[in-house]
Structure to design on (755 residues):
């Protein structure tokens, strides 16, 4: 019986709730390093009412032996939050210095960029906010048949904003990017594109401020966003000599249009004009967040900042921005540890080019399905997007009638977060169209980012990768803000 | 006197009695362990809390990296807890916000605000093992883990930080539910405050990370853990978490924990300490 009890007690020791002899060894004191905490920044706000208790107890952990759970201490004055304080902030919110090599381009051997933007923000009261921003964009392209450099000054977000309760009104130049997908959100109907560096940058850097009046109204978890563009401003285009121009005079091609001797002759001889007069239209977006998913509905009657090049007499290529109507829906949800995003859109009056180079219009249907996840719950993020674009016409046109493809980004950090590696990619399914953008960054010297990156393009006629297939770029850069 | 064995039924009766006593003791100890875990979880922390703090990432031979953070927490009705984290330094992540709604059923809804895009993105809260802004904290470390998700047992008593602590082992009931295979906590029985936590990942015998409490302060009757460190025991890299100011029970409005407030820093900034 004694043996039986011994056996029993041994087996019971393995059951939960019983203290076995596996108490960890006491910790060495080596980890009790000296107090090497850097002092707070001077801008770190201290509590305005720093007298929380009559006698606040402050103790190193060692001195806490006899403390009971807190019965709240009687106090004469309750500490309060700092409340509203006027804000005046200014700084450089973006500085990019990049040197690049174009190993295959006939136009140039190198392409370098300087981009800087600065801002002042003043919030004198709870209700009012004023912001002024300016930016400078410079580029130089050298070593080939199309040496070129330019410097462009422009405004950044410059607006007056009024807040009251659930209402926010903003008037002035502002950057508004609607939608859920990362690369080309369908609901992005009121932003102004920046094509000076084609698609080398992330979406937020491919958009510029434009004049708009915006009314945002929240209703609990829902929000109505109304935007009117009183003065249309087309996309910021690179100079026609730039390798990133949508018109390539060296090869005689227009982006998205099937190349032909006739088009080449036209591109070689035509003057290029821009038609931006009038207003940009207006759009409404209703979004709701919460269970079981976030969703949005967008209605827009706007002019798109991306140009359509119409062939006019002369000959000339005129960048026009016709009105079109857009109806879109989007949703976002988390299931099985994955974030699913989807956008669906219908657009009318999409300009297309007939074989005769005359302009026609049609409808288009677009869909994006996106999946974002962190494999193994770790430091790597994968964002995969499937895209479908279909023009609803039976007529023979020079653009691709249908495009199915994938794009996205894989990024990871290593070296305790001091290094980042990323790969942006895009590929076509029904046509040969490839973009690969690997990037390795050192971000250990905050807030600066030093990086080496490459942009590889390949593809058939009428695709973006095909249009830029000679413009593979290798870059070395610094990006920062302060 | 000749030895006379006990009748068989008496022996079985005694055995059953001993077994019952032992199992009762086991149950009592298990209850005690679970109770301690629950006490640590239920430690009074106010109806709402706002903190202004810093994370200092240190690595031997390198300059420390600092993140300044404002956090807001609100215990809502029905067992729901809302958390909002806003980065205010350094510049490259300033303005970034994270909103988490921990629901009573254990699910968490999470949104991330990216100032560059001015966009709120829903993200999965299942990302447990990723490093939070390059620190030694995993995303899981930011969540308050419910004691019911673990099996607890008391390992004994040991002195930590000069306090005789109860040593509590917590093992996830569902191994997929945590990046850690086990946690051992040294808990001050008087205050139910952990003084040290060892985190185990792949190796069940050697902790991979260690959290140490360095200082605490009583504010408005509540204990605030003002200074603690998370140490990566393999690399020696550590993250120090300092709370410079804390405010309890300032009646934070529920509106602060919406995606609208997440996307507009000025809506919450006046509630900062």
């Amino acid at each position: 019986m004694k043996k039986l009890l011994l056996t029993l007690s041994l087996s019971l020791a393995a059951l939960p709730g019983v203290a076995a002899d596996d108490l960890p060894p006491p910790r060495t004191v080596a980890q009790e390093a000296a107090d090497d905490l850097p002092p707070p920044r001077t801008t770190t706000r201290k509590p305005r009412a720093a007298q929380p208790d009559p006698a606040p107890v402050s103790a190193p952990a060692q001195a806490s032996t006899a403390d009971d759970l807190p019965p709240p201490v009687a106090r004469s004055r309750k500490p309060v939050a700092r409340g509203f304080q006027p804000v005046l902030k200014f700084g450089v919110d973006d500085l990019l210095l990049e040197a690049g090599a174009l190993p295959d381009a006939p136009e140039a051997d190198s392409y370098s960029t300087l981009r800087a933007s600065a801002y002042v923000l003043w919030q004198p009261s709870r209700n009012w906010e004023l912001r002024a921003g300016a930016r400078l964009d410079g580029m130089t392209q050298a070593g080939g048949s199309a040496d070129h450099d330019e410097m462009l000054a422009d405004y950044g977000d410059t607006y007056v904003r009024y807040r009251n309760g659930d209402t926010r009104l903003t008037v002035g130049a502002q950057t508004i990017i609607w939608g859920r997908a990362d690369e080309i959100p369908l609901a992005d109907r009121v932003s102004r594109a920046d094509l000076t560096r084609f698609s080398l940058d992330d979406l937020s850097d491919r958009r510029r401020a434009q004049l708009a009046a915006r009314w945002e109204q929240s209703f609990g978890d829902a929000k109505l966003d109304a935007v009117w563009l009183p003065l249309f401003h087309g996309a910021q285009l690179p100079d026609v000599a730039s390798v990133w121009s949508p018109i390539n005079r060296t090869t005689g091609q227009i982006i998205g249009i099937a190349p032909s001797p006739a088009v080449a002759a036209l591109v070689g001889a035509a003057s290029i004009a821009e038609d931006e007069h009038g207003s940009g239209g207006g759009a409404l977006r209703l979004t709701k967040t919460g269970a079981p998913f976030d969703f949005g509905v967008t209605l827009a009657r706007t002019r798109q900042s991306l140009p359509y090049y119409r062939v006019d007499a002369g000959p000339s290529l005129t960048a026009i921005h016709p009105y079109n109507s857009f109806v879109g829906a989007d949703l976002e949800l988390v299931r099985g540890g994955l974030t699913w995003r989807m956008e669906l859109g219908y657009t009318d009056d999409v300009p297309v080019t007939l074989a005769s180079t005359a302009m026609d219009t049609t409808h288009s249907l677009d869909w994006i399905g996106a999946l974002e996840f962190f494999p193994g719950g770790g430091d790597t993020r994968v964002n995969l997007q499937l895209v479908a674009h279909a023009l609803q016409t039976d007529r023979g046109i020079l653009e691709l009638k249908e495009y199915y493809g994938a794009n996205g980004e894989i990024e990871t950090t290593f070296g305790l977060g001091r290094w980042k590696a990323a790969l942006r990619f895009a590929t076509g399914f029904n046509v040969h169209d490839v973009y690969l953008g690997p990037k390795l960054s050192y971000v250990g010297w905050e807030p600066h980012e030093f990086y080496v990156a490459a942009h590889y393009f390949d593809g058939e006629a009428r695709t973006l990768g095909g249009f830029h297939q000679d413009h593979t770029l290798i870059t070395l850069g610094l990006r920062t803000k302060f | 006197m000749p030895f006379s064995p006990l009748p068989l039924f008496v022996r079985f009766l005694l055995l059953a009695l001993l077994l019952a006593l032992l199992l009762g003791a086991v149950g009592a100890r298990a209850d005690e362990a679970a109770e301690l875990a629950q006490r640590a979880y239920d430690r009074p922390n106010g109806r709402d809390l706002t903190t202004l703090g810093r994370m200092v990432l240190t690595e031997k031979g390198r300059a420390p990296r600092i993140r300044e953070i404002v956090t807001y927490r609100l215990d809502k009705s029905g067992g729901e807890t809302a958390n909002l984290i806003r980065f205010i330094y350094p510049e490259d992540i300033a303005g970034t916000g994270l909103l988490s709604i921990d629901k009573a059923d254990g699910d968490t809804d999470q949104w991330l605000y990216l100032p560059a895009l001015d966009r709120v993105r829903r993200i999965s809260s299942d990302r447990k093992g990723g490093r939070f802004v390059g620190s030694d904290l995993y995303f899981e470390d930011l969540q308050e883990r419910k004691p019911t998700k673990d099996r607890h047992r008391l390992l004994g008593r040991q002195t930590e930080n000069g306090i005789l602590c109860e040593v509590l082992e917590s093992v996830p009931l569902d191994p997929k539910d945590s990046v850690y295979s086990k946690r051992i906590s040294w808990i001050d029985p008087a205050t139910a405050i952990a003084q040290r936590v060892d985190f185990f990942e792949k190796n069940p015998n050697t902790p991979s990370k260690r959290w140490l409490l360095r200082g605490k302060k009583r504010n408005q009757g509540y204990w605030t853990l003002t200074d603690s460190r998370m140490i990566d025991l393999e690399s020696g890299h550590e993250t120090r978490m300092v709370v410079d100011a804390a405010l309890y029970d300032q009646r934070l409005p529920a509106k602060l924990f919406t995606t609208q407030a997440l996307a507009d820093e000025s809506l919450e900034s006046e509630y900062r300490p």
About this structure: Chain A touches chain B through 108 residues (CB under 8 Å). Residues 2-13 of chain A form the longest helix (12 residues). Helices of chain A lie at 2-13, 261-269, 464-467.
